[in-house]
Design goal:
Layout lengths: L1 H41 L40 E3 L16 E9 L24 E10 L8 E11 L2
């Protein structure tokens, strides 16, 4: 009886651990999908604004998520460090209300095409955002909170470089 009891307790711990790990991997997979959604939403957009050109870094006055027409619009209004989407957006830039515990934080930073590892500090950039360099780094962080009162925890981060054609 003791041996069977110990085996049952051990298997219950194993099932609890597997369930917890399954939940963590589900959140991580969702976070990766949400970061990919931002990348897909940017696909096909101009590097510079088709109307104003290089004059404004960030979204132009009056632009909304649905009318973003260039890559740097995803950084948010001019002079902002990043833009958060909560509820997160899908690849067609539509909100996903059922995933409101996730937040996508997007930043777009100019970089020198010959120094891709540079200008990584969003709070204190080496290159001002208004400087046209011909290349930008897009960084997406996906944050998660179990309950609305919990602090957000970063689940996933990815970045890529976009170069002016």
């Amino acid at each position: 009886m003791v041996i069977v009891g110990v085996a049952i307790v051990a298997s219950m711990r194993l099932f609890a651990s597997c369930s917890q790990q399954n939940s963590v991997s589900t959140r991580m997979t969702t976070a990766m999908l949400l970061a990919g959604n931002v990348r897909e939403a940017m696909t096909g957009l101009s590097f510079n604004d088709p109307i104003f050109g290089k004059a404004t870094f960030g979204s132009e006055v009056g632009e909304t998520l649905a009318s973003y027409n260039d890559v740097d619009d995803f950084n948010g209004p001019a002079n902002s460090v990043s833009q958060s989407f909560n509820p997160p957006i899908d690849s067609l830039r539509a909100q996903i209300p059922s995933m409101s515990q996730f937040t996508q934080v997007v930043s777009v930073m100019p970089i020198w095409p010959y120094k891709l590892a540079g200008n990584t500090n969003e709070a204190a950039p080496e290159i001002p955002r208004t400087t046209y360099t011909g290349a930008v780094r897009v960084r997406v962080r996906v944050l998660y909170r179990t309950n609305p009162t919990d602090p957000q925890v970063e689940l996933y981060r990815c970045s890529w470089v976009r170069v002016d054609d």
